[in-house]
Amino acid sequence: MTKKGLLLLSVLMCSISMVAWHVPVRIVSQTPVEGAEEARCLKFDHNGLMWIGTDLGVCAYDGYRFRTYRNDAYSPGILPNNYVLRITEAPEDRLWLGTRDGLTCFDRRRNTFRSYHLQSQNARTIDALFTSSDGTIWVGTSNGVSRYDAETDEFTDISMVAGVRSFSEDKKGNIYIGTWEGGLFRLNPKSGKLVAYPRLSERNTVQSQLVDSRGRLWIGTWENGIIRLDHPENESNPGVHRMNEGRPDFRTFHQLVEDSVSHAIWGCCIEGLTSVDLDDEQKVENHSELCFCYSLATDGHGNLWVLTRNQGLVHLSTKPSPFHFYHLDTTGLELPVNRIQTVYTSDGNSFWLGLQPYGLALYDRRANHVNYNTHIPGMQQMTGTSGIHVQTIYAFIQRSEQELWLGSSQGIVVCRTGEPARLLPRERTPFIGDGNVNTFCQLHDGTVLVGQSAGIGVAFSDTQGRLLVSNVDVRHIIEGHDHRIWVATDNSGIISFTGDMHQPQSIQSRLYAPVKGNYPLKDATAVYEDSHHRIWAISNGGALFLYDVEKDQFIVVNQRYHLNVNRIYAIGGDEKGQLWLSTDKGLICLKIDDKGKCHPAYYSVEDGLEKIRFSANGLSRFGQELFLGSANGFFSFKPAQMDHWQPADSASLLVTGLQINDRPYEWLDSVLQHRISAEPPYTTRQITIPASIRKFTVEFALLAYQNEQQCKYAYRLEGYDHDWHHVDADNRQAAYQNLPSGTYQLKLRAIDSYGNLVELPYAIQVRVLPPWYRTWWAYLIYLLLLGSAAYGVKEWYKNRLNHRARLQQRVNELLHYREMMVMKQYEGARKTLEAEEQQHSSPDELFLSRAIDCVKQHLDDADYDREQFASDMCVSSSTLYNKLRALTDQNVTSFINSIRLKEACRIMRQRPDIKMSELSMSVGFNTPKYFTKLFKREFGVLPSEFIEQK
User: Fold this and answer.
1) DSSP bridge partners of 116
2) Which is more confident, 397 or 641?
3) Which candidate, 633, 609, 629, places its Cα nearest to that of 618?
4) Is the distance from CB of 709 to CB of 682 less than 8 angstroms?
5) Cβ distance 140 to 196 under 8 Å?
6) What pLDDT score does 907 carry?
7) Which long-range contacts (CB under 8 A, 24 or more apart) does 362-368 make?
8) Is residue 153 exposed (0-12), middle (13-18) or buried (19+ Cβ within 10 Å)?
9) How far is Cα 433 from Cα 341, in angstroms, rounded to an integer?
10) How do residues 603-622 score in pLDDT, each as one tens digit?
11) Alpha-carbon separation of residue 701 from 110, 184, 304, 362, 585 (angstroms)
12) What is each CA distance from 931 to 865, 869, 889, 926, in whole angstroms?
């Protein structure tokens, strides 16, 4: 055989051995990169935030949305070029971006960009970017290597024989430099010594590099596969191992990463992904599911993110799924299988499966073999219109080691070992009514309750029993630890029974339904008792209920346990006492502590479930395993292993944005930005809200990148909120409006899909400024003005008192002078004045005497008013009023009433036994009540009291 033939044979044998090794990898999600035609590089920063370099700038992706930084009309010049080829992170939250036309340093703490252009024209395109362990930035271009000096803010060039494409660093701080067709070099940064390695491949191009956890150097070449150097510090004998060499595909690798879960090195190339076992370079697997893969990143826990041209950002998982699926071969089946309705096993190997829409299957797990319908032993005669293949099987129950009952759409099928199966006839079976048999429950004494769509049957044997309840559509039955029976129905809520089923007169029932006010719905899918003897119930509408023993009612707990589901199909438990729910959002595990608190853990397609399509009450348990039916088979899992499967480290909770009056922080002018926060939202610890701003919103995200829609969030503004506000993944923001002025502390927390609590490690101080008229200087002005006003009033009052005193003194002097003059010059004036006064007084006395007579003449006339009084006095009404006011200080009505009341006094003196009605009428009052009121007001006593006093 020729050397060429031997080489081809060795390549073929290598290829065969490679294919024999399989690394489990599954696609978790695919996300298109918004707005980008090409995405070239991928990087996670120290907080876990993903950065993607595209042809339209650099994108920050938090698992929910992309935020792009690029040159545009609103932010011109922040990048030297929008095509970002390389990304690396430096200390102090600085991100370095390599573009087609220079570098940019993005200072995230200050939200500033600074561009750098290297001196040579050949150094415009950045082909490599790397941050060494001491924080030094290394740049690779067609001109060679440039090293950034942070003290001088300048780059130092290192001449190379070829363009530089990649960097890596070993534990000793040596920098490995990969070039384009120039081979591999090692640089000692301290001494400046540069060492060249012998030619490693035909093209001698080191496109990508990785130093693994064992200190070995992996090299992704251009067109020559993957090379591993076991002793990279020894340039003369590095210990070379080659993978994928000589292949027409999977030979050019743009990036390499190490994954500890799959125990492999992963490389991305145009044709897809390649994995190489860490221990055996012969174990190589090429994955062609993806193509045009440009960049690769890992979280170190079995998650890979691949940046592709056609499929966008692809999330892969190398973790073996915790769910074991059993796919059924449906070849030759009479009717198609839609899904598995229910699963039952008594030994963990043989599984009885009720199919949808019709049929029965018996699956042998060890042999991986399935029989359908009449091919199942004992079912051969179950044909025709009542054949097993046209029945829907809803439930199973093991009556004994030799006997199994099947609840179906046509009644009960009894299977005895070694005997043909038979259908119990409805007409001769007293405990079967019309409708489907949906569920069984074997009581502590061996009695079986048969739940049907038309009622409940009590079976003592396959021939003896009776109907317990009719006209209820039963979906599930359990017996509690206290032998209390709970029945879930589809039309009558929940019913509980107590008593001995053998003695009908001892049976008592209680209804839990809307009409009783102890259960809000008419339907219930199932009832379940956990290991703590708590009673749970689920409904078709996605509600979870917990029975309150003290209140004797079912309480909905969806909000308490943060369950956001539209449908709950089944409920069950494991040996740890944890609850498991099959829902439209996947599987949910509820771990309820002693205080009643619970953070649900969600498991969905991203965790390995093939398809979320469950059936009502389709969950069963055997030993440590739980079993559920699915769309094309059934699956099992061990709850005890689920905690080990979850990520060991929690994701980071990050502030991702700030909105002011519904406008993003970035859209504000720089003056207002600085006034609100000296740092961007990502790093800010303090937010100042001016009085002119009515609303602010803080946005946040948990950087989980898996099941992110099942993450829950909460926020609280201490000093304002009394409790936490809970929001879902679609509303990840804390919004406040018209806050009173003051200083508050904003705290954020999140719960990932596995129920792990993550808190923002710091509180954000929110300082709300008062309006100008409520500031300290405004109050100081108010105080000064108030003091000035008080002083002014004091001086004015003081001057007024002095002025009045001077005027009073002057008046007194004038009056005294006038008095002296009058006394001396007109000694007889007093007598003259008295005479005149007497002359003037006589007509007034006559006027009053005449007025009194007029009133007395009309004393019993209640209608005697002002106009008639003035007419009798021969004066006008106004004259009468003015005259009486001047002489008696009374108006006309008061004068008339006073005369009447005085006459009443006179009459009461003469006639003490007079009645009040007669008295009031005699003096012109229509009602005794009004007369009594006026009398009391005039004399201070009641008429009766006046009579007694006299």
Assistant:
1) 103
2) 397
3) 629
4) no
5) no
6) 86
7) 363/326, 363/328, 363/634, 365/326, 368/326
8) exposed
9) 22
10) 998 888 887 788 889 999 99
11) 21, 42, 20, 47, 20
12) 16, 20, 22, 8
406: its two tokens: 């099947």
Per-residue pLDDT at 847 exceeds 70? yes
- In the DSSP assignment, the letter for residue 895 is H
pLDDT at 1 over 60: no
Structure tokens at 17: 């051995």
DSSP-derived pairing of the beta strands 313-317 and 324-327: unpaired
Q: Any alpha helices (H) in 160-211, and if so which ranges?
A: none
522, containing H or E segment? none
* Side chain identity, residue 697: T
Q: Is 486 left (phi over 0), alpha (psi -120 to 50) or beta?
A: beta
The token pair that represents 65 in the structure block:
């949305």
β-bridge partners, 601: 589
The single residue listed with the structure tokens 């010049």 is: 77
For 110-148, the DSSP string reads: TTEEEEE--SSGGGSS--EEEE-TTS-EEEEETTEEEEE
335 near 358, Cβ under 8 Å? yes
Instruction: Give how far the C-alpha of residue 780 lies from the chain's centroid of Cα atoms, to the nearest Å.
Output: 45
Structure tokens at 510: 């209680």
* 3-state SS, one letter per residue, for 342-402: EEEECCCCEEEEEEECCEEEEEECCCCEEEEHHHCCCCCCCCHHHCHHHCEEEEEEEEECC
Count CA atoms within 13 Å of residue 808 on its CB side. Answer: 6
Give yes or no for residue 849 having a pLDDT over 90. Answer: no
β 455-459/448-452 pair status: antiparallel
